[in-house]
């Protein structure tokens, strides 16, 4: 395993390149070595992509860029190293390996460098790596991350837009006047609104607003410009025309004339900022009337109603608050209201209220209030800032609504939903909801995991249908069957998981919810991954058939051994011989059971078959060879026969006798691999050939030879018995491995 703490030169030298299309590093041509040397000496992130797979070799700077993708990316195809941009890299390989070059500036990507998606921008330059014949064999890439630059540029542009927007949308009027004649340079929307949207930019104030003559404003501007002292006007009346040919009307304004100085301190212009307060003055009396109406309305409400000044100090409560809390009027004013709050809720309530007052945003929070009898009940508190027509904060108005019962019910519902969710997760059940108006699916977390998708909110049912294998799509619902309510309520089908491409079996049940018109409106469903059940079912069927087949074969073998053993022999001898043969057969069966009857190692077969023999005088030698079931059984029986005869009549019947069991592998002239196995006795009594052929010899010469598709030779030399098996190497893929 490569370590990300080692420099790339060392990692590249240690990597097993023979496992890639580049081949061993010692065989690399000069152009590959030169390209790799070039990037290793570079200080900027560089990477080469070799061949159609885009095998990656990069430098230390690129490793720092790749973060957790390093060192696994070294020597990997680029599609596997960066799966989230696989299509992009496919296009690069296609273009550059065709001889082209390409580059990208501030290209946006979403990469998983740290295990989670992050947005970043890159400058990318791609050019071909040419071999000695002038053909493109790889891609040379320079990677420069520009995320910080892009974000900074966007922040700067946003800040400029924000400043322009703030100036233009400022609630007060703003203008900038230039020079001694007070030429309009800039006006905002509020100022243009004040002067009737006349186009005054570029005009001196005396030409732009001639109706100001005699009202003193020209003189005020001249004085500010000449003295450099600002002027503040409060509720000053001014006669202004709403258009150039209209009659001037009186407005009231608060404003400031602020001199603007250059770098040398000289006044070069005047900044005008103010507020048209005409409507505010006109509505003050109306606000007083409205205040009386509000309090009358608030006292009639069953809720707690309260109000506060713009500074957030509570100064009024309706009678419901005092009745609930058992306090007297005035006891809760200013900050004293927090005495009604549960101690655990005070800090958050005060913090949220402070933020609302500071920002003028809506206030909303849930907290417990102490009732006069000492009990605590949950309340939802909400407040809004009322503003005058100039947008200035006027008063906070809030309500407290008792939600104790709703909160208890909501908690019970959440507990129920949590129990349902946990039970579904434990049972591997996913839930879905299909809105038939949009045919979009809203699903539980288990659903996205089941289908191998990221949970990014509602998804089109059509997209989910695409994951169903084509052969099973007739089993699922369609947009038409969902709309008509004719979709099958239960279905079992296969999907191809989006994230892993593996096939999963899904069982689902749906219920149709109909609207008031009787037409289907929504579909609710439950899904379960039944892949393991399906596989278990298929394996059970296979095992049943296999067991039936094995039993028939075993019974046939046992029957043959029994009939041949008991023929032409007395009962006691036959019983002992039959027992020995069955024991040898049983031991071979045990070996095969360990591999689910697929194969057995030749050495293991011989060892278990010689267990009853004096193994200290038996030598075993040979390479690793795997036998099929039928070869394993017949060899075990043959070794048992040879061993039994050796104990009775051969080398193992005397203390100095020995047996050598050896096997070897070789290749014949026609290229086929051959197996030679032999049993050779020595040091025993003189051996003579038997006068008749018993079942044991038939078993060895015919059954063993037949099961190995080879030849068996038994030699009865005076020095001892020798049995030699020569046969093709067993083919474990053959259908002929069944025991006959």
UniProtKB/TrEMBL annotation:
Which residue range or ranges hold the PAC domain? Answer: 105-158, 234-289, 363-415, 489-542
Keyword Repeat recorded: yes
Region (Disordered), start-end ranges: 396-417
Instruction: Return the SUPFAM superfamilies for the record.
Output: PYP-like sensor domain (PAS domain)
Q: Which reactions fall under this protein's catalytic activity?
A: ATP + protein L-histidine = ADP + protein N-phospho-L-histidine
The record places domain PAS at 290-360
Q: Name one GO molecular function term.
A: protein histidine kinase activity
EC number(s) from the headed UniProt entry:
2.7.13.3
Tell me which stretches of the chain form a coiled coil.
Answer: none
One Pfam family, please name it. PAS_3
Fetch the CDD domains from UniProt.
PAS (cd00130)
Q: Which domain of life is it from?
A: Bacteria
Extent of Basic and acidic residues compositional bias: 404-417
Q: Which UniProt keywords apply?
A: ATP-binding, Chromophore, Flavoprotein, FMN, Kinase, Nucleotide-binding, Phosphoprotein, Photoreceptor protein, Receptor, Repeat, Sensory transduction, Transferase, Virulence
**NCBIfam families under this entry?**
sensory_box (TIGR00229)
Q: Give the protein's recorded name.
A: histidine kinase
Give the taxonomic lineage as stored in the record: Bacteria, Pseudomonadati, Pseudomonadota, Alphaproteobacteria, Rhodobacterales
